Amino acid sequence: MKMGMWIERAGRALSIAIVIYLLLWLACILWFWLGMPFSGGGIFAYTLLVYYITLPAASAVVCSLAGWRTEAGKARLLAPLAGALLYVAALLLTFSLSSALGLANIAPVGLAAFLAGLAPGMIGFACGWALRRFRDSRR
Q1: Cα(21)–Cα(15) distance, integer angstroms
Q2: 121 to each of 3, 10, 20, 96, how far by Cα in Å?
Q3: What is the pLDDT of residues 77-89, one digit of tens each?
Q4: Which of 5, 9, 23, 138 has its CA at 20 to 30 Å from residue 42's CA atom?
Q5: String of b and e for 25-37 (b: at least 16 CB within 10 Å)?
Q6: Neighbours of 91 (CB within 10 A)
Q7: What is the C-alpha separation between 28 and 26, in angstroms, rounded?
């Protein structure tokens, strides 16, 4: 395979990964409201699965692909920020909204939540960028 095909595949992979991330994000919010994981340890399991595993891992994958794609220019630098904003938006649309509606009493979203959403994206972006630089230096 020629290098151009790999770069084209990375571009398609980034587009597909973004769509999958957004669908996963929406599914997590719908799971919260349709499943209402408030019984027993449900809220704990939801928090672990969604906010500590699923959304950070998905953000890291999307951001690593964005870091790899130099063709996207400076716009790719917005990927970790978008991941962090979507992480906070998910918290606002689930826990904060349920607190506002009186369904639960959960602590409000703060700067720590933004940083928790930003960290996996920055790590993924740095990995993608470093791998691309390594590959380009070997040519």
Answers
A1: 10
A2: 26, 17, 15, 23
A3: 899 999 999 999 9
A4: 23
A5: beebeeebeeeeb
A6: 23
A7: 5
